[in-house]
Design goal:
Blueprint lengths: L19 H9 L1 H9 L3 E2 L1 E2 L6 E3 L7 E3 L6 E3 L12 E2 L4 E5 L5 E8 L3 H10 L3 H6 L7 E5 L2 E7 L13 H12 L7 E3 L1 E2 L10 H8 L5 E3 L19 E2 L19 E2 L1 H17 L9 H9 L9 H12 L4 H4 L25 H6 L10 H10 L4 H23 L19
Parallel strand pairs: 5-12
Antiparallel strand pairs: 1-7, 2-3, 3-6, 4-5, 7-8, 8-10, 9-10, 11-13, 14-15
């Protein structure tokens, strides 16, 4: 018997709270369970009728050592607060076991959206290519009217847990994230109880110390599919496209009327690095110039994705085995100052600071602070970009009219903003 299932709840990107009960009811419905069962997937079951969490429906091995692209996992029962292989089950993503009892994640995606096109593209890529570029592979895509279900291997979240122990472990993680800079969610190739298990996982700590963990991106909610011939250095989007949960930079916080998403992606990853790892500049000196150049306000000087990876690999390759095995101090990075206020150069050797002074980000000027305060108002964030766009076009028009044109008029586009703000 063929079952017909329909999506009736909101799938607006970035909205995780709306229609929560309706999403849960969809995944728990008998027709949904049977529809996936017919296609070889056994959905996880809800812990109780009102619970936000789900657990595997079928028994699993105590320890999972599946080969890539599948993940390591552990049925940890060492603590009464841990529920083996528990996962959140109230969003656009559900979890299941395939016909070989391997654990997978299933995400609902709008058909013909940019996200769908990206995932179809990834589905057709060689699996080793995806592994090299740190992208979780797409295993299957199941379609219904208007939507599709994208099947990927289940990996773990909370990539920083348990606490990173050595400089080498930290640098390996950062290098993986640099392989394919994107502001999406990063996953790790090990999972346990998603709620309480990762912080104390001895298995994950051991895998990390052996450099066996892989890190990859999997979420393309805010991504767009662009033609390969697009000039990344000149591509622009209007300022309001930067609004949303993915933008953690201040690239459009001064009333800029447009932005380069490729430049912003590098900055966003730099901000994430800063908020998690900037206190370690005292132990890993090269992080100071590296993080400053990833997040600089001077967008023309900010690293491109390839420049960031090249710089990082070049500098870390010069570290000795002793330096890589350096034990990092226990700190609480998220309690530190935000990235543009934190002094990453404090207490570093004078010779090092002088050598890398040209990478150091200067203090925020008063004009920038004033523009940011205006944009923080209810009206400023919308009005100031339009004012700046008007004056930019006016100045461009005046310059164009003053320029001698012996043969023909050549239209000149207004200059995009890439100065320091």
């Amino acid at each position: 018997m063929e079952f017909d299932i329909k999506i009736t709840f909101d799938l607006q990107r970035g909205n995780h709270d709306r229609d929560r009960s309706e999403r849960m009811a969809f995944w728990d419905a008998e027709d949904t369970v049977l529809w996936f069962k017919q296609r070889g997937y056994t959905l996880y079951k809800r812990m109780d009728v009102n619970a936000s969490y789900v657990v595997p429906s079928l028994p699993s091995a105590e320890v999972g050592l599946d080969e890539y692209p599948y993940s390591y996992y552990e049925n940890d029962t060492s603590s009464p607060r841990i529920v083996p292989l528990r996962a959140y089950g109230e969003g656009k993503v559900a979890f299941a076991q395939d016909s070989k009892n391997r654990h997978v994640a299933i995400k609902i995606v709008h058909q013909d959206s940019d996200e769908h096109r990206i995932l179809e593209f990834l589905r057709n890529q060689d699996i080793e290519t995806l592994k090299e570029h740190c992208v979780v592979p797409v295993l299957d895509i199941l379609s219904i009217k208007g939507f599709c279900f994208v099947v990927m291997p289940r990996w773990g979240t909370t990539i920083n847990a348990p606490a990173i122990q050595t400089a080498g472990e930290l640098l390996f993680l950062m290098r993986s994230m640099l392989k394919d800079i994107h502001t999406a969610n990063f996953l790790v190739s090990h999972f346990t109880d998603s709620v309480a298990g990762a912080d104390d996982s001895k298995m994950r700590a051991e895998l990390r110390s052996q450099n066996k963990l892989l890190y990859a991106i999997s979420d393309f909610d805010f991504s767009m599919m662009l033609p390969p011939e697009v000039n990344r250095s000149k591509f622009r989007l209007p300022f309001y496209e930067s609004w949303g949960s993915f933008n953690v930079t201040t690239d459009t916080a001064q009333g800029e009327f447009d932005f380069n998403p490729f430049v912003m992606d590098v900055g966003a990853l730099g901000v994430l690095f800063c908020h998690s790892y900037q206190p370690y500049t005292r132990e890993i000196l090269i992080l100071a110039p590296f993080l400053d150049r990833m997040t600089t306000r001077d967008l023309a000087k900010r690293f491109t994705a390839s420049e960031a990876l090249d710089f990082f690999e070049n500098m870390t390759s010069q570290l000795t085995e002793h330096e890589l095995r350096l034990i990092l101090p226990p700190i609480s990075p998220f309690l530190e100052a935000i990235y543009y206020e934190y002094d990453r150069w404090a207490n570093l050797p004078k010779e090092f600071v002088e050598k890398w002074a040209h990478y150091r980000e200067p203090p925020i000027p008063l004009t920038t602070k004033i523009l940011r305060s205006i944009c923080d108002t209810d009206w400023g964030g919308r009005v100031l970009p339009l004012i700046r766009l008007f004056f930019s076009r006016a100045i461009s028009s005046v310059r164009a009219s003053a320029r001698p044109r012996p043969y023909q008029n050549v239209p000149e586009q207004h200059a995009s903003e890439s100065k320091r703000y």
